[in-house]
Amino acid sequence: MSDKKKFKGLSDKAVAWLFIGPSVFLLLAINIYPLIYAIRMSFTNFYANKIGREPQFVGLKNYIKVLNKEAIWEKMQVTANFMFWTLLLQAVIGLGLALLLNRKFKGNELLTTLIVLPMMLSPAVVGVFWTYLYNPQVGLFNYVVNFFYDFGSFDMIGSSELAPWSIVIVDTWMWTPFTMLICLAGLRSVPNYLYEAAEVDRASKWQQFIYITLPSVLPFLLLALLFRGIENFKMFDMVVELTSGGPGSATELASINLKREAFEKWKTGYSSAFAVILFVTIFGFGNVYVKVMNKIKER
Amino acid sequence: MKKIMILLFVSLFTFSANSNAKSITLGWAAWDPANALQELTKEFTAETGIDVNFEFVPWPNFADRMLNELNNKGKTFDLLIGDSQWIGAGAVYGHYVKLNDFFDKEGISMNDFSPATVYAYSTWPKGSENYYALPAMGDALAWAYRKDWFDRPELKSEFKKKHGYDLGVPASWDQLYDMCTFFQGREIDGQKRYGAAINTERGSEGITMGVTAAMYAWGMEYENPNKPYDMEGYFNSPQAVEAVEFYRKLYEDCAPPGHSDAYMVANLDAYKSGQVAFQMNWYAFWPGVSKEDSDGRVSGFFANPKQNVAAATLGGQGISVVKYSDKQDLALEYIKWFARPDVQQKWWDLGGYSCHNDVLNSPSFPTSTVYAQGFLDSMGIVKDFWQEPTFVELMLPMQEAIHDYVVNGKGTAKGALDKIIEEWVEVFEADGKL
Q: B141-313+390-430 maps to which CATH number?
């Protein structure tokens, strides 16, 4: 039988499955199965490092424990603060930079490349070298801040008041270019005739920004913030390298705590419950966010 | 063409000869003593023809890397120089080979090694005669100080005037504090100096090892000696609370700026760069510090000062044969060689800390280096963290709670210790101990 004849026998549906089959298989094996397994584990007292001990069903005990633990709520609060400030700063600065780079001026391309550079670095590397930049004795950060106003010696990483800001600053430095690039794409898709018509109607620059630029770029900005929000909810490497979650637990994000519970304390059942709660939280927020974003797009 | 063929043949022969050569792999932490061991092991290879490959893992990842390897029943290592706290897990989970029969057969007696090191590095259950390791590297937390600053007449007289006693090796933690604050912020040779580089690291075991140096000296016990795992009133006793409060005071008043997540290397750097008058660190680092100070003018060393009792935090490791190794016989041959008194003497000479009585009891030992007497003193008073199979689960809550109190300034010392006990009870309950 020739190859031509053999494939002639396949229906469109079969061909479609042939193409999507491997992806569906990988999705089931790598994402769905572990998720179901984690949900199952979350109802047990399983400890992955206790070899030979059979996990026992404990009902909702792990969920109740997670939700009643004060330390977990502290970590959630740290995560919420981190997300709020990083997203706010990245939205404002990213949009500002995009507006700047949307203008034509000499060196535009070079400046764009330079601004985008931090995003290309490994988060772990960024975490390590910012520990040097933040060093209160020899770090450049203190020097630059004191150049503008003499605060004296201050320890960004060692102070519980400043440490949460230290991770916000680094994340903003690293990922604002991402927001900027998406906004820039949005700005470049705004047709010029809208501005020409606004000029004819004698609209001011501010009015043009409020009534043309901002509505056009908003769906792009929201999309960028969705990506950043998801990434920052699971932020791990940069913060671990920079502060190890410290001082104390001042910068211990939910994801860091989850890793410690799951792979250092080996409380597999308990941490599975925590992971499921985090998953439901981000899934819920994500859905609401996408719905709001779609409504804005439809306007 | 003929030459090429010969070359090819020789290369193939060499490759095949190498692949057939006897070799074992030894895992340890990446630090100065590991280099000394590598040097020492050349003699083993020369004697036996067994090649020893080394895999040294940086300290922050050491426990993660090795314990994952053991939990996964990995065959990467034939020999492992594991931390003292791992011995429980190594024995209970069957990661380490029990060495009693081998010791009996080869005439290796644990009586030939310092009792404190045998207890800490080799036995499980603690104090029993079940041996899972040979004491390999004795160690304890100790202190180095800037002798050259202490010897300056103007500083000596100023200190004596202020505190009424001589500036020198502190006899207690209170004296240590006086000296640290004396140097804190002081300008010496045009440079601002600080008191002490102490352990504050959050990620692995740093701050726990540091704070327990104070807690032991104040007389803290982990549990009721008559009722195992009963920690209430022992681990959070008034003395233990006072020690933790003191450690925080030491951090706040005497540490250099930015020393909020520091352990071995950071303490060493702060000291070597001339920032601090004191550094807290393991004996393992003193050969390196001492080597750069050949006339002994700059640095002095001393054992952990006493407060209510004389005590020091135990470090160090034993060498074990990994149960999952396919080359246990070769690994045992290495242990047999390493246990020899002459090899132990060379080990000390090269910068390793032998635990063998022949070395430690030699009349020349106390004066063999400037830190040898301190080492002897320390090994007689050492105390260790829990050596339970669940020691990682026990270590983490202590790291978090102590860092939160000492560095973050959150809550009270009593609150931190109560919180640790709460978590430890949970760990022991899950482990079936309570």
A: 3.40.190.10
